């Protein structure tokens, strides 16, 4: 039988009702709240990151290849796709490819006129990521001929007072000018004004017809990678193999302000978590100090009957370990419980105008949860060990007389 562990368990029951009991409860609450706040913070931070990145990627993918042009217009020169698509597919880091083309237009209804950009897409290579942004109506249909369906953003639809099923006239400024009547099939919403105030989604073949392009010409190709974390090296490799007249844009450069904002959030959360761990560690050190002071007489008696410093130190170590595990248990229950409630029932809403989404997002990452628990466990045990070295300085005669 482990004597140190046995005595530690007896102390746990003997502390009930004493000042030490109140202090140990504070230590448990401190660890529990610290761990719970860390779990919730990282779950929400990762939720924000994934939600915003997902919305951005649904419009621009990870990389975008287009014709090199000094003109910054949204309407670009065409590029031939057959050979380019074949070269891109040969790269093992490329997950999917999405050809697109854009055309500026003016939408006219009975009451309103609004300038937009018609972005043509197709689904030959798989379902479009834009499907995740659909909030009303249905997604575009892609029949054998060019579809007359379009998707409006919620902002554009509200300004023009259009809803799914309505017709809208599009005027394209070119020579000669052209007019198209489209049917609103659905409404999308990303919460990102950069997209919602500008883009209308339609069939790629409609844009190709407006430009009088054959099926082999498109405005550009969006590239989705298998691992976004390898964006820079993969972009460098693809760029080296591109023709001289093509350019490659990274999504992190196109929307640098959004990715800088996410990075700033990351930095602030890390500072916040360091402060939480410091407070929890300080409370544990203070708790063990108080336990040692209240048990000074007992320490003197144990030393007088032959107990070694390591045995007594182990006794308080097991006591601190018990408090740590209890605090971590409660912390995980509170943190994961809060995340589960928000994930399934969404009780906490957000203003989409300011936060790009209508509710607080939660992302489950088992690895981060394990790391947070391990960090809390190790720092708490370190905090337990520090004050136990005070035991070696306690003399039996002095300790027995201590009151």
H/E element order: HHEEHEEEEHEEHEHEEHEHHHHHHH
- Beta-sheet strand percentage? 15-25%
Rg computed from alpha carbons, rounded to a whole number of angstroms: 31 Å
User: Going across the major beta sheet, what is the strand order?
Assistant: 3-4-9-6-8-7
Oligomer: single chain
Structural class, judged by helices and strands? alpha+beta
Instruction: Give me the number of helical elements.
Output: 14
Terminal CA distance reads 31 Å
Report mean pLDDT, rounded to a whole number. Answer: 83
Q: Compute the number of structural domains.
A: 2
Task: Using the alpha-carbon principal axes, give the shape.
Answer: elongated
Give unreliable regions as ranges.
none
Helix content: 40-55%
How does the major sheet shape up?
6 strands, mixed, barrel
Number of strands: 12
What key attributes describe this structure?
two-stranded antiparallel sheet, ABC transporter permease, 6-stranded mixed beta barrel, cell membrane, 403 residues, elongated, single chain, MacB_PCD, 14 helices
Model description:
It is found in: Cell membrane. The chain crosses the membrane at residues 26-45, 269-293, 323-346, 366-391. The chain is of the alpha+beta class. The chain folds into two domains: 3-55 and 259-401, no CATH class; 69-243, no CATH class. The protein contains 14 helices and twelve strands. It has helices spanning 3-14, 19-60, 82-89, 154-160, 193-196, 204-211, 231-241, 251-254, 256-294, 296-304, 309-345, 352-355, 366-388, 396-401, and strands at 63-67, 79-80, 94-108, 113-121, 134-137, 149-153, 167-172, 178-188, 199-203, 217-218, 220-225, 246-250. It is elongated and about 105 Å long. It starts with a helix and ends with a helix.
């Amino acid at each position: 039988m482990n004597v140190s562990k046995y005595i530690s368990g007896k102390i746990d029951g003997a502390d009930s009702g004493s000042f030490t009991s109140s202090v140990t409860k504070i230590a448990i609450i401190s660890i529990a709240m610290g761990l719970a706040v860390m779990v919730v913070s990282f779950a929400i931070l990762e939720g924000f990151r994934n939600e915003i990145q997902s919305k951005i990627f649904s419009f621009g993918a990870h990389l975008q290849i287009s014709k090199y042009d000094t003109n910054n217009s949204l309407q670009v020169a065409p590029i031939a796709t057959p050979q380019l698509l074949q070269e891109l597919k040969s790269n093992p880091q490329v997950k999917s490819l999405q050809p697109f083309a854009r055309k500026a237009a003016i939408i006219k209804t009975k009451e309103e006129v609004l300038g937009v950009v018609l972005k043509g897409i197709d689904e030959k290579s798989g379902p479009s990521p834009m499907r995740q942004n659909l909030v009303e109506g249905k997604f575009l249909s892609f029949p054998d001929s060019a579809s007359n369906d379009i998707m409006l953003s919620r902002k554009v639809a509200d300004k023009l007072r259009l809803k799914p099923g309505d017709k809208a006239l599009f005027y394209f400024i070119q020579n000669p000018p052209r007019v198209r009547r489209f049917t609103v099939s659905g409404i999308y919403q990303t919460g990102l004004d950069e997209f919602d105030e500008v883009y209308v989604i339609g069939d790629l073949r409609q844009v190709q017809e407006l430009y009088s392009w054959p099926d082999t010409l498109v405005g550009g190709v969006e590239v989705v990678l298998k691992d976004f974390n390898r964006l820079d090296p993969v972009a460098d490799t693809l760029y080296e193999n591109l023709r001289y007249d093509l350019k490659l844009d990274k999504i992190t450069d196109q929307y640098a302000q959004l990715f800088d904002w996410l990075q700033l959030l990351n930095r602030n959360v890390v500072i916040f978590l360091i402060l939480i761990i410091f407070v929890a560690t300080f409370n544990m050190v203070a708790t063990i100090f108080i336990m040692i002071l209240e048990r000074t007489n007992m320490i003197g008696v144990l030393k007088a009957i032959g107990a070694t410093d390591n045995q007594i130190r182990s006794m308080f170590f097991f006591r601190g370990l018990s408090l740590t595990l209890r605090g971590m248990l409660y912390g995980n229950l509170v943190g994961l419980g809060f995340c589960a409630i928000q994930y399934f029932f969404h009780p906490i809403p957000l203003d989409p105008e300011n936060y790009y989404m209508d509710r607080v997002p939660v992302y489950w990452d088992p690895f981060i949860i394990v790391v947070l628990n391990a960090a809390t466990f190790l720092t708490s045990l370190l905090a337990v060990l520090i004050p136990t070295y005070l035991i070696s300085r306690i003399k039996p005669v002095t300790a027995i007389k201590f009151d």
